C-alpha cells in the first residue's frame, strides 16, 4: 500500500548497498520521495547529490515527514546531518566504535524526536524498508503523538477546490465552529470522530487547544469543542493531508504562509 500525502515535506535516510561503499548513510530533504531516490541513483548529472553520485545503488530506508514547511524540514535535516553542531543535540554522544552508521543515525533521530521544537510537531517516522527497521530504545521512545509507520509514501498534488455552485470562482466555505466566521476548505480542520461534524480554522482550533499551554506555539492534544472528545493535533493534520487512514490501520515552501505563523506567544 502506497500512502499519498498532500503538502509533503520529508527528511530521509539513504543506505548504500554498493559493496564498495556498503553501509554508508546519507541524510536529505525532499518534497517527492519517489523522484528523489531516482535522482540519487541516476547520479549527480540527473539531479542527485555529490556525496551519493557514483556510489549507488542507494535505498531510501527511513523518512520523517509531517513538517509544516520546507524551512522546518531543512532545519531538521541540518541537525540530523550535524548533531554535534546543533545546540539542541548537545546531549547526544558521538558514534561509538561498536555502532554502525545506520545505528548511529537512528540514535540521533530518536533523540531529535524528543526535543523541542520537533517533539511538538505532528511528525511521522516511516520505515520504507522493513529489513532495516530498528526499534526505539526504552529511554528514547518518541512522544505519543509521533507514530511509527511502515510502507511507501508518495507526495500528492493538492487538488484544486471544487467549482462554486454559484458559478463564481471563490473557494467553497463553511462556518468555523469557534469564531463563527467563514472558513475555506484549504484552511479548515475537522474532527475525525464519525459522529462529530465540527470544523474550524486551523488557527482558531490551535488557539483553543493552547489555552492550557499558553507558552507554546504548536498544540499536541486538545478537546474537540463540539463532541468534547480528546484528539491529537497530529491526527487532525494527518487527516487533512491524507495519511490518517494509514496510521489507523497500523494499531498524518518557504514562500508559503503557515497557520503556525499566526500564533503569538
List the helices and strands and how they pair.
Blueprint: E1 3-6, E2 10-16, E3 25-30, H1 33-42, E4 58-65, H2 70-81, H3 101-112, E5 124-127, E6 148-150, E7 153-156, E8 173-175, E9 182-184, E10 188-190, E11 199-201, H4 202-209, E12 221-223, E13 230-232, H5 233-241, H6 244-249
Brief account:
This protein has about 260 residues and is α+β, with helices and mostly antiparallel strands.
Q: What does this molecule look like?
A:
The chain is of the alpha+beta class and 265 residues long. It has 6 helices and 13 strands. The chain has helices at residues 33-42, 70-81, 101-112, 202-209, 233-241, 244-249; strands at residues 3-6, 10-16, 25-30, 58-65, 124-127, 148-150, 153-156, 173-175, 182-184, 188-190, 199-201, 221-223, 230-232. The protein has a 5-stranded mixed beta sheet with strand order 3-2-4-5-6, with helices on both faces. It has a two-stranded parallel sheet with strand order 1-7. The model is unreliable at 246-265 (pLDDT under 50).
Amino acid at each position: 500500500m502506497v500512502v499519498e500525502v498532500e503538502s509533503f515535506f520529508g527528511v530521509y535516510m539513504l543506505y548504500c548497498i554498493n559493496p564498495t561503499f556498503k553501509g554508508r548513510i546519507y541524510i536529505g530533504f525532499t518534497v517527492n520521495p519517489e523522484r528523489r531516490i531516482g535522482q540519487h541513483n541516476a547520479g549527480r548529472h540527473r539531479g542527485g547529490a555529490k556525496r551519493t553520485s557514483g556510489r549507488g545503488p542507494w535505498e531510501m530506508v527511513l523518512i520523517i515527514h509531517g513538517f509544516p514547511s520546507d524551512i522546518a524540514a531543512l532545519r531538521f535535516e541540518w541537525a540530523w546531518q550535524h548533531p554535534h553542531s546543533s545546540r539542541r543535540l548537545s546531549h547526544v554522544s558521538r558514534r561509538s566504535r561498536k555502532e554502525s552508521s545506520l545505528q548511529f543515525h537512528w540514535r540521533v533521530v530518536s533523540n531529535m524526536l524528543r526535543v523541542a521544537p520537533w517533539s511538538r510537531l505532528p511528525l511521522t517516522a516511516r520505515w520504507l524498508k522493513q529489513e532495516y527497521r530498528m526499534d526505539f530504545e526504552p529511554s528514547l521512545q518518541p512522544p505519543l503523538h509521533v507514530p511509527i509507520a511502515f510502507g511507501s509514501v508518495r507526495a500528492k498534488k493538492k487538488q484544486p477546490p471544487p467549482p462554486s455552485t454559484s458559478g463564481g470562482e471563490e473557494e467553497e466555505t463553511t462556518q468555523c465552529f469557534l469564531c463563527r466566521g467563514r472558513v475555506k476548505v484549504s484552511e479548515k480542520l475537522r474532527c475525525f470522530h464519525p459522529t462529530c461534524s465540527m470544523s474550524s480554522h486551523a488557527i482558531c482550533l490551535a488557539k483553543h487547544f493552547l489555552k492550557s499551554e499558553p507558552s507554546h506555539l504548536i498544540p499536541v492534544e486538545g478537546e474537540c469543542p463540539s463532541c468534547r472528545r480528546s484528539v491529537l493535533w497530529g491526527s487532525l493534520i494527518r487527516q487533512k493531508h491524507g495519511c490518517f487512514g494509514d496510521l489507523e490501520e497500523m494499531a498524518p515552501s518557504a514562500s508559503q504562509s503557515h497557520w503556525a505563523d499566526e500564533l503569538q506567544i
